[in-house]
Amino acid sequence: MQAEPKTILNFLATHFDAMVYLFEKQNTEGSIPIRSFREFELRFGQIEHQLFDYKILRMVGDDAEFSGEIYNLFQFVLREFKPMLPEAIEKYNNSIGSLFKLIVENINGDKVILSKRLDELYSEIFAFLESVEKNTLRLLAETRELKSNVSKIDYKEKVEKATFWIEYYIQPLNAILDINQPLSVVSQLLGVSNFLNVKRLNFHDETIRKQFEKIYFFLVQTNHDLLNQSKILTNELLPLIERIRTESLILTGWIEFLKKPNRVQTPPMLKVTRDNPYSNEMYYHAKEFVMQFQNVEDIIMTEELIKDEMWIFNKDKYKQDLINQMPVNDFFKWASASLKNDYNQIETEKLFSMTSLLFEDDLTKEFDPLDKHTTVRTTHVTLKVPKIKIYQYGIS
């Protein structure tokens, strides 16, 4: 009896560490040896029969391995992708090309078959994009691991690995993503995209037309994603691994030279010279600097006190003046005129003090309905202020 999907998912979540152990074992040894289940049971308990009942594992000869779907799931979850050879990715050129050719040749044929071929085309493009992304992620991880040299491998092996990644993975994959190569997969996808763009606008059957539109917009996004992958390969991955190879070659050659330095005659690398880190005239410059302080006259500095005019705002006086002149149609114009009359100038501080009259409770304020403004020039700034009418007790 087949287990419920929810039961299988709960089992995978509950025994996640055990699944990771088996996943790493299969990645390391190519399969899961039956002998390793003894250690497995000691660490994780007796769950072996459930692994086979739920179709998580299957027997292959005398050993076991994950079923394809479960293995792909853990690849995705753990971001552990095996790098694919570019030849394996290149197969999508044929599959996509064949499907596209059949679609074009039988565009007016059976609608059911045409719809099915469009679904298959979408799946193949999706699988191609996923393969490229997985390969790029894995190559980037392998390259960074090689750069950090966690395994402490020698320089010669680093050079060999860097050369291997470039020749068998990075450069061929970059060619697949090169739109300027007429036989590349990306170049073929461009032709597919142009065809779909036309058919999504004028195909007579609405259902098929929607499929054309779906694949077209997916291809637009795919083109953007593939461009990003190509940039990673060209701008980050290839320079990084080339730098590893170059640095390693230099260091490898230098180590070999140090092992037997007398095998070759080296040219003179340094010319022996002697110089001082300071000028020959340093003594005279220092003496001149010191002598200028030998005859120093006493300097007495006194701080000149600036007498500021102390001004106290006579609020009662100005309020009474304001009441006597009511109604006042423009408060700031009246305040400026009052200060000008009393002090022959309009100082900013005094004008701001006058504005406190606007907050008196027994005075009624009314703003200009047309939102007119008045310009007031003080001794330091020019202010743009609203036009405010003042009256008392509602009597204007």
Task: Explain what this protein looks like in three dimensions.
61% of the residues lie in helices and 8% in strands. The chain is built from 14 helices and seven strands. The strands form three sheets. It has a three-stranded antiparallel sheet. A two-stranded antiparallel ribbon has the order 4-7. Strands 5-6 form a two-stranded antiparallel sheet. Helix 6 (86-105) packs parallel to helix 9, helix 7 runs parallel beside helix 10 (206-259) and helix 9 (185-202) packs antiparallel against helix 10 (206-259). The longest helix has 54 residues, at 206-259. The chain starts with a helix and ends with a strand. 16% of the residues are buried.
Features:
mainly alpha, 396 residues, single chain, two-stranded antiparallel ribbon, 14 helices, 3-stranded antiparallel β-sheet
